[in-house]
């Protein structure tokens, strides 16, 4: 992928929070555009507090914070816990809604099955659901998603399944840094309504929609995402 100029982002540090069973590989197509970055290690922690603290312990004094999917919950937690360190917040394909009873029950069932039978990675159907319909049989993307899950392994899978996501809607108004909310048109895992809740709840937040893309935006549409970040940073500093 050719380098896309991100204007004032180029010499600023990015702290990147990946999604469920994703590691740094999620961002591999975007990293050539960042001069400096840190990944949140969400592999062994069982609470948002511990995930957030691991990043705060390793990141520079100030940074641009980007959270994808589950990582959006971590990113919002960081933005509220250490507002003086977060210069800008980007929330992609995520939500502020709490885990519902149906999801909690399903996750507990999967945890029991996995503890009994072991972790063999994510099902093909689950990985396909996260992609644009025209990319659901892209073997390279499907394999990269599975490779991330297998690198993280069973402990991470159980920890992340057991993480009940709190209702973040009441605290959105407490986020004071410039915020960009991103949703992708063919995202089957997060709705436009959830993105709008974030944008409406966070003061002066901007909502942008990426067309022709499923849930896995950093992997499916990295150039569109990079271009959008550059555009947003330029406009917000005009």
What does this molecule look like?
The chain is α/β, with parallel strands linked by helices and 238 residues long. The chain has 2 domains: 7-97 and 167-236, Alpha/Beta hydrolase fold, catalytic domain (Rossmann fold); 101-161, no CATH class. The chain is 42% helix and 14% strand. The chain contains 8 helices and 6 strands; from the N terminus they run ββαβαβαααβαβαα. The chain has helices at residues 48-58, 70-81, 101-117, 124-129, 139-162, 192-201, 217-220, 222-236, and strands at residues 13-17, 36-39, 63-68, 86-92, 179-184, 206-210. Strands 2-1-3-4-5-6 form a 6-stranded parallel sheet, sandwiched between helices. It is globular. The two termini are 28 Å apart.
Task: Give the CATH topology of the largest domain.
Answer: Rossmann fold
Describe the main β-sheet briefly: 6 strands, parallel
The secondary-structure class comes to alpha/beta
Q: Please name the fourth-level CATH homologous superfamily of the largest domain.
A: Alpha/Beta hydrolase fold, catalytic domain
Strand order of the largest sheet: 2-1-3-4-5-6
